[in-house]
Amino acid sequence: MASISRILPIDGRLSHCRINNNTSWVPTTNRAQTHLDSLKLFSASNSGVSLKIQNSKPIHSVFALKPTSNVIQSSRSKSVVVCKAATDFSGDVPESSPKELSQYEKIIELLTTLFPLWVILGTLVGIFKPSLVTWLETDLFTLGLGFLMLSMGLTLTFEDFRRCLRNPWTVGVGFLAQYMIKPVLGFLIAMTLKLSAPLATGLILVSCCPGGQASNVATYISKGNVALSVLMTTCSTIGAIIMTPLLTKLLAGQLVPVDAAGLAVSTFQVVLVPTIVGVLANEFFPKFTSKIISVTPLIGVILTTLLCASPIGQVSEVLKTQGAQLILPVALLHAAAFAIGYWISKFSFGESTSRTISIECGMQSSALGFLLAQKHFTNPLVAVPSAVSVVCMALGGSGLAVFWRNQPIPADDKDDFKE
Question: What is the CATH number of domain 103-405?
């Protein structure tokens, strides 16, 4: 015996309910009803039941449809119930009306979505007033980057990692794009343009870094799948412990000595440990994290802006003399990654997912690249491509996000993401 029971909002519209194995309910109503006294049509067969209900009375309680043994006798295997309601864009029926954002939350959201503006301002400060941001040197820079990873971890739960397992193909394509397309692009561009060994190494290093938290903001602006973006950033961040030092060693080891073990240890300390601490805090101290979770995106934006401005300030003199030489290869790296990530995704996924993978592929954690270059390479020029990447990534990613925001998602766009 199958049954459907769902609490609907006062003005909810039930558009479709289906019980698999060919047993289907297809109610059509102007308003979901609790009083079925105006039943117009009811028919039953051995393959299913259909009803059409018209009633003008408003709903005040649970609306339940329940076939009994007198209506349907079936010995088939256990049915799977799938319901879809036309109450919001996701197809889910909310248990209550959405909570309106407070004025404080609206301000936080506005400041967060203005992230590209803050990066541009930080870049200008770094170039023309470097003393205002160069205080964020290696130790403080490491602490700031670790805190940024912690703020990301506070937004995650163990369920998010289980969702990765439910979406292996979607997340896997993003992971491969991050650690196959981008590193190969970095190597090919460096070799084609015949960059000097330290600059080529720096370009390869930044191309081997994981996705940055800024990609989540850009995905939100572009109408992409934010949940998928967060999962992809998380997976690439964890994968960076192995992939970043391994790929840098393979692709740049012939140019300069690469301390792969040191890169792995630093990535573990700066990336994985703070992220795990954040996840554990969110799991075991939810009341505490719920009080600060609303401001973590803004904290992330502020930290990212500082972590973008500081590298610019620290290499400002080099940028004034060699910056023009590096703008072309770095800009090509990000532009090609955005384009290839998008078009490869379009072969298998819908528009929303393709936008998400494109942004994730094109936006790296340039701050991590800068930190690793400072700590593990003696030539200061290795850090310069990461500093230039900060600007190109932020401008390219935010510009693409704004462009896509003005391009509607097709109404029939397929959902590639399993919650």
Answer: 1.20.1530.20
Per-domain boundaries in the chain = 4-84, 103-405
Predicted confidence at residue 206, as pLDDT, reads: 92
- State the DSSP code for 30: S
Within 10 angstroms of residue 269's Cβ, the number of other Cβ atoms is: 13
The torsion angle over the Cα atoms of residues 270, 275, 276 and 278, rounded to 10 degrees, is: 130
Name the nearest CA neighbour of 402 among 221, 224, 225, 226: 221
Q: In degrees rounded to 5, what are phi and psi of residue 127?
A: -80, -45
User: Tens digits of per-residue pLDDT, 291-301?
Assistant: 787 777 777 77
Helices (H), 66-213: 103-113, 115-128, 138-153, 158-166, 168-176, 182-192, 197-207
pLDDT value for 78: 40
Can you give the pTM of this predicted structure?
A: 0.65
Specify the residue for token string 């704004």.
402
- Buried/exposed code over 56-72 (b: 16+ C-beta within 10 A; e: otherwise): eeebeeebebebeeeeb
Nearest Cα to 147, choosing from 158, 157, 136?
A: 136
